[in-house]
Amino acid sequence: MSEKSLAVMCGFYCIDTCTYYSFSVVIAGGNDLSLVWSANRELPAPENTTLQLTREEGLILLNSDGIKIWSTNTSSVSGMNISSSGNLILFNDEGIPVWQSFDHPTDTLLVDQKLIEGQRLTVSYSQSNWSQGPYYATITSALGFAAYTEVDQGPPMMYYQLLPTQNMGSANESVFAEFSQVGLLVNMGTRAQWNYGEYNVIPSSDTVIVFLKLDSVGHLKIYQHDSDRGLVELLDMVGEDMGECQYPRSCGEYGVCREGQCSCPISLDKIQYFRSVQSQLPSLGCSRITPLSCQQSFKRHQLLEIENVTFFNVIDLGAAFPDIKDINQCKLACLQNCSCGAAFFSYQNITDDGYCFLPVKILSIRESKFPRTDFAYRTYIKVQVPNDTSFPVPEAAPHSPSVKNSNFTAIIAGSSAGAFVLLCILFSSCQ
């Protein structure tokens, strides 16, 4: 394949030191590779694993002992091919598809690929650890297309939502999100479309493939892979819609994110309650100087008000406590519940008719300037008053968060990967 060509191929893709592999679909061109689908991402295959295409079960991955690692579990298979758009297809004797990778998305949506209700885009922990990470995106008839982070205490937290606002369809239509040449279409009987055309995105063609990807740190981005430049990031959907501070871990636990800068919460009473986990890396978050203790009197717990900030999860009104509408009741409920880490309150007109959020796990706290909203926000973080309250307030020196993605080596095997035996590899060369 020449440097100027673009190809969609399937084969073995390796991680880390190339001792484990996934059967994958990749885009190759411009001296770059883009992984867009994997069969066995959460169970990487060791060396000496074979790939077989069978009539009775479709594609099968078998380890050296003959134990099945993964299969399409599809009968009446007579062949397979891969489309120029990246869809791996198994077909029967009549040429009718009986299985396709587009029906089983991992972390990527290619053009004309749908995410239907009940499916998820899920991330890996990192590019060297393919076990399932904490972020996912899904679509439901109630909430539309939404991205969440899982936490070790409490339910998943929403940090992005695309919900239809215009009635453009029939209520009998199915619920799905579809990535298209012009944007992300969300269909729930009514339709909403996130249109990226104004950002000069080049539609997919013989030399360009565009796709949407949810990455290991929760970024929901649109990429372009072309034959000249390889992989190019085009647009951050969450950042464009809601600002870069909307990501749940942009500044770590209890870190305050303002215009991409990370700092620790600072009180108005001149007492330092938080410090950086690592002073040189403020994006790693903050910790309480005096840990909360439920064994001592609640009188030593107080709520520290932080001005002009809120929590990323306040966009999910369904996560608010339904029986608490008053700001003072919200604060009291947090103080009376030791597991509550902070009280976040949002309202439109008056503070006795709003929404109360009482999360246990406090991830990044963001600036309260949400675009296209008329809500106001109040934030109260729970702290424990220390015996010695002489902590000085440190000089505020904001730093940029340092969450970055790192690349790792990937190999597509033409006929083998290490000691693998690859029985067939198909590709579609784009002229």
TrEMBL record:
PROSITE patterns: BULB_LECTIN (PS50927)
CDD domains recorded: B_lectin (cd00028)
Heme as UniProt keyword: no
Residues covered by the Bulb-type lectin domain: 1-103
Segments crossing the lipid bilayer: 408-427
Protein name according to UniProt: Curculin-like (Mannose-binding) lectin family protein
Keywords assigned: Glycoprotein, Membrane, Signal, Transmembrane, Transmembrane helix
